[in-house]
């Protein structure tokens, strides 16, 4: 089993910044991908950004140039730095840990990001 604990969500004004953190613990497989997905009301969950254990990153087109994903393998923690936030970035953000052999992986409980003036 894998446990994921997220933090860093909150309320921010348009143009502001937030940093999300997700710490993984448990039966971690060293070759993995960690990512941040988001789900807005009435919409499907979508990938915002992901990073592999070797450092390869992937971003949704809508966040490229504004969001930066990083990880600290020694702490089993992934971060999402979100800058220039827009109202359309508002969603529940979920951390995901996916071992190399898994199709879906494990989910965190989610953290709310609200972008509003």
Strands, helices and their partners?
Layout: E1 2-7, E2 10-12, E3 18-26, E4 32-39, E5 46-52, E6 57-59, E7 67-72, E8 77-82, E9 91-99, E10 106-107, E11 111-115
Parallel strand pairs: 2-11
Antiparallel strand pairs: 1-3, 3-8, 4-5, 4-9, 5-6, 7-8, 9-10, 9-11
Kindly describe this structure.
By secondary structure, this protein is mostly beta strands. It is 0% helix and 55% strand. The protein is built from no helices and 11 strands. The strands form 2 sheets. Strands 2, 4, 5, 6, 9, 10 and 11 form a 7-stranded mixed β-sheet that branches. The protein has a 4-stranded antiparallel β-sheet with strand order 1-3-8-7, with no helix packed on it. It is globular. It starts with a strand and ends with a strand.
| Tertiary shape | globular
The profile of the biggest β sheet is: 7 strands, mixed
Tell me the series of helices and strands, N- to C-terminal. Answer: EEEEEEEEEEE
Which range best describes the helical content: under 10%, 10-25%, 25-40%, 40-55%, 55-70% or over 70%? under 10%
What is the arithmetic mean of pLDDT? Answer: 95
Beta fraction: over 45%
Radius of gyration: 13 Å
The assembly state of the depicted protein chains is single chain
Helical segment tally? 0
Could you tell me the number of beta strands?
Answer: 11
The assigned structural class equals mainly beta
Give the low-pLDDT segments.
Answer: none
Q: Roughly how many Å apart are the termini?
A: 40 Å
């Amino acid at each position: 089993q894998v446990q994921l604990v997220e933090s860093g969500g909150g309320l921010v004004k348009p143009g502001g910044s937030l940093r999300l953190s997700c710490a993984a613990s448990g039966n971690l497989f060293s070759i993995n991908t960690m990512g941040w997905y988001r789900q807005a009301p009435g919409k499907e969950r979508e990938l915002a950004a992901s990073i592999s254990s070797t450092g390869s990153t992937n971003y949704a087109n809508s966040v490229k140039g504004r969001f930066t994903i990083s990880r600290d393998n020694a702490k089993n923690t992934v971060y999402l730095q979100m800058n220039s936030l827009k109202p359309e970035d508002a969603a529940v953000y979920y951390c995901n840990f996916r071992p190399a052999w898994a199709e879906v992986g494990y989910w965190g409980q989610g953290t709310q990001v609200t972008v509003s003036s």
